[in-house]
Amino acid sequence: MKKKGYEGFTAFKHHLKDEQNTTINFSNVEKIDTEIKSSILKNEQEVIRTLNMINTGVIEDAIQKIESSERIIIFARAFSEFIAEEMKIKFQLANKYCELHTDPNIIKIMSQHLKKTDTVIFVSLNGETEELIDAAKNCYNKEIGTITITTNKESPLSMLSELVLVGFKSEISFFPDYEVRSRLPLSVIARILLDSYVIRMNKHHENKKLPIN
């Protein structure tokens, strides 16, 4: 076991248990209906491909921009609002001032009255929502820092944003008649960004507490 890099047999057993819990049990998947199986694999693909697409340099830049900002303003619409709401609460729990706006008219007006000490975060699956694009144009013209979380790096919103975090969107939709595609990639990116921000802030606080020799 030690030659394999484990402290002992117990550590090896824990490794196997963790590995079992973090990979899909295909023996169980094979037993279920084909359509349900495709749903499970669709979600797995969105998560894995999103993780592979994450640019750590952009995450680092986003953390620094958030840290140096007086206010974080989040703009989101439709189903992306749920992810934005979670982000707002987590920023507030981390003692970072944060507002969330989801009303189209408020988004347009609010984006005209921002300060250069603010940072705007857009959460948008396709990056083609009209009021978000208008807000991004206002931010661009006023030189307001912007971060966009999306699955479309070629969208008008992405093109107007300073930093863009892109996830993978599956083409499979089980609600083809409605625009209710999965926001799972956006959720993965948002959680990584918030977790990374909190980790960095905690390290800064720890370093400040260290005695100077």
UniProtKB/TrEMBL annotation:
| Biological processes per GO annotation | carbohydrate derivative metabolic process
Ranges for domain SIS: 62-204
> What superkingdom does the record give?
Bacteria
Regions that span the bilayer: none
One Pfam family from the UniProt entry?
A: SIS
The molecular function GO annotations come to: carbohydrate derivative binding; DNA binding; DNA-binding transcription factor activity
Protein name according to UniProt: SIS domain-containing protein
Q: What is the lineage of its organism?
A: Bacteria, Bacillati, Bacillota, Bacilli, Bacillales
